[in-house]
């Protein structure tokens, strides 16, 4: 498994299984929890900005005399953070493939925490004028860089520690950290509403300091990826993973980019923009929309893990095909449901949009994207594809607001369905990495290894030793 989860028969799988056990490393659960906790904290920080942008920043950091322009500027600032995420993914991916996954995990979390706490300390437009918006952009850029580096390190670390037949489940656990972060962010903003004034949005950002300390302590205890250590020991680390993956695997980058857009840009329409839309149309008050998002996020914690685990049984692509098809069909019904203004209907709309549609895609991505790339360029390739789509999704609320201003709610609804169509086509064009043949092969290997009497075959120190031993026995 030095290169990837084996799609075809590898004559050395049994040897590889002895340095990367079929059942995963002894610390696989600790790694999954550590990566999930970090993802939770970084999502709390990053998503918190989106909530504040939709509810507060249009008047706090920009002129309040033109609400629509303030909303557009607020969403533009939100988009900037997404725009720099590919750069963060490139930097984090490059470092992850060159010096290790763990340093990237710790560094990205620390950087995100510092930027988020600073947001809670920024002066408003009423205090320093246009400089308020400039300062907000600066810290948002830092947030984007940190978040861009986060995903690849966390997912790849978990993926490379996980059992061979449970990659979807374990990466789904890490992905579930994102709805946990979403839940905590919405809870923080809901609880802070009674504070009023600027404290209603400052306190949630300042609270991030506590979460960061907890996250750093946990991540420092996570062990490095066994596959990275193997590559390092064999001297097979890529000298320039970015150049190599762009040269050899650009097609997979493009496919994963399109797959990801449906999930992340769909979220930007159905959650981020929807918060602003509901408020502007006075369909429900802030407590209803925040509560709806919290319920959806709470369900999403379990839904994301479930969707990931489901891919271990039926494959990655079937689940993604269903999720993208539902995106295609959900655009108009979503807005029709919200437009009723009934609180229960609003909650149902958010739950379906997030726990069913978004989570069904997010739960698959960790395993599927990782399996598309070789181990020595895996962090760079998966991170680049994952974060490039953030440019599109980051500016989607801005685009959606403009469409809404020109065409009413039908514009955002059709845009949402269009993202679903793009993902559906991409899923059809992307190879299955965990189909019946792959699952049957690993199952056969499991039976072979388990049937072997203990001590019959000495356990090699590494995959390199295993291959040397096989070569020696062949020569003899």
Number of domains: 1
C-alpha-based Rg, rounded: 23 Å
Mean pLDDT: 82
Provide the CATH architecture.
Up-down Bundle
* Biggest beta sheet attributes: none
Low-confidence stretches: 1-11, 455-476
Draw up the topology in text.
Layout: H1 13-19, H2 28-55, H3 57-60, H4 67-83, H5 85-98, H6 101-119, H7 125-128, H8 131-161, H9 167-175, H10 177-192, H11 199-206, H12 208-220, H13 226-234, H14 241-248, H15 250-280, H16 286-314, H17 316-338, H18 343-371, H19 378-407, H20 410-429, H21 436-451, H22 463-475
Helix pairs in contact: 1-22, 2-4, 2-6, 2-8, 2-9, 2-10, 2-12, 2-15, 4-8, 4-19, 5-6, 5-8, 5-19, 6-8, 6-12, 8-9, 8-19, 9-16, 9-18, 10-11, 10-16, 15-16, 15-17, 15-18, 15-19, 15-20, 16-17, 16-18, 17-18, 17-20, 19-20
Transmembrane segments: 70-92, 104-125, 131-157, 169-193, 199-218, 257-280, 286-307, 409-429
GO molecular function: transmembrane transporter activity
Region (Disordered): 448-476
Give a quick summary of the entry.
InterPro entries: MFS, MFS_dom, MFS_trans_sf. With 476 residues, this protein is mainly alpha-helical.
Walk me through the structure.
This protein is mainly α and 476 residues long. The protein has a single domain, classed as Growth Hormone, Chain: A. The protein is 79% helix and 0% strand. The chain has 22 helices and no strands. It has helices at residues 13-19, 28-55, 57-60, 67-83, 85-98, 101-119, 125-128, 131-161, 167-175, 177-192, 199-206, 208-220, 226-234, 241-248, 250-280, 286-314, 316-338, 343-371, 378-407, 410-429, 436-451, 463-475. Helix 6 packs antiparallel against helix 8. 57% of the residues are buried. The model is unreliable at 1-11 and 455-476 (pLDDT under 50).
